[in-house]
Amino acid sequence: MEYMIGAYATAPSTLKWDQALETNYYQELKSQCNIIGLEHPFVGKLHPYDDEWFLENIDENWQFIFTSIPGVMGQLAKNPHFGIASTNEAGRQAALAFYQQAQQAIFKLNNHLKKEAVSFLKIHTAPKITENTESSIQALQRSLETMQSWNWYGAKLVIEHCDAYILGQEAEKGFMLLEDEITAVKLVNSKLNSDVGISINWGRSAIETRDTNGPLQHIKQAYLNGLLKGIIFSGTSDIDGPYGQWKDTHMPPAQAIYIPSYAENSLLTMEQIEKSMQQCDYQKLDFIGGKISLSPNQASVNQRISYIKSLITLLDHVLEIEL
User: Fold this and answer.
1) Prediction pTM value
2) Other C-beta atoms lying within 10 Å of the C-beta of residue 284
């Protein structure tokens, strides 16, 4: 199997920008034969630090999935009404303008590689729902219809479900419910004959439901509605520790016999990965992958790569069992 890896979350640049260190890290990523491409963070421009460095150091054969969540969270810190699902029209328009920047970044990457290298743009149903900020299916539908009319240079739009607002529960993202996202997507796809999809992040669904059954339910729900495009495995914990309790810290998987690098008290076990795959026909998914961070964030390039390889090893073992 080949995987999409959110390598930015494990990178040395999560601490500070060190070009030499980051170059070494990318050389190691390129040597991993079962990494088919990267989930790449979009923050308003192609690369958070240096577009030209990025273009020089990627593998020309990689595929890319742009994820807007780093940029969305940055925008929300400045404007709590920001988001494509916002009932605040100025906030909704600000989000559309942000995604137009993503469109230009996709064009720049494709132009450099001389091909359509970006398969998906992950979009997110901000704003965070509070007493003062709201979202709606209608606002999301309008935004999706607008965005679907743009030229994405080969990329497809996919809503990555984040933990939804639950009354009385502290949220990490606090965005829309999955069923509301599904409703909006189906309305748009039906109206425009489009192919907007849904992506599930294992950790974020567990955080929302406070239960390891949550990701299974979300995967199955998106799959049965014909919208599931991919699954990204990222862990969390129900116990306070270096990665926090029910925090979206991309916790590495739990200890398993096959892997040298893992996190104590992670709920993301080999068994949970296996159960997740059983909720859908995973061979028909467009992508499967993972995204992990390190806490405390102190590690050599080789150690960082070891955590990525350990997660890939678990995925390989599960998929070999399933096959």
Assistant:
1) 0.96
2) 9
Can you read off the two tokens belonging to residue 108? Answer: 């720049």
* Cα–Cα distance for residue pair 217/231, rounded to 1 Å: 13
3-class secondary structure, 118: strand
d(CA 5, CA 38): 5
What element of type H or E holds 5? Answer: strand 3-5
Report yes or no: 88 and 34 within 8 Å, Cβ to Cβ. Answer: no
* Distance separating alpha carbons of residues 35 and 308, to the nearest angstrom: 10
Q: Which tokens go with 262?
A: 């893992």
Q: Residue 65's beta-bridge partner residues?
A: 39, 120
Structure tokens at 124: 């997110």
For residues 230 and 223, give the distance between their C-alpha atoms in angstroms, rounded to a whole number. Answer: 10
- Rounded to whole angstroms, the Cα distance separating 308 from 85 reads 33
Tokens 């294992």 label which residue?
202
Of 23, 32, 18, 15, nearest to 307 (Cα)?
Answer: 32
Specify burial of residue 256 (Cβ count, 10 A radius: 0-12, 13-18, 19+).
middle
Distances (CA, A) of 99 to 44, 151, 286: 8, 12, 22
Mind listing the pLDDT tens digit of every residue in the chain (323 residues)? 899 999 999 999 998 999 999 999 999 999 999 999 999 999 999 999 999 999 999 999 999 999 999 999 999 999 999 999 999 999 999 999 999 999 999 999 999 999 999 999 999 999 999 999 999 999 999 999 999 999 999 999 999 999 999 999 999 999 999 999 999 999 999 999 999 999 999 999 999 999 999 999 999 999 999 999 999 999 999 999 999 999 999 999 999 988 999 999 999 999 999 999 999 999 999 999 999 999 999 999 999 999 999 999 999 999 987 65
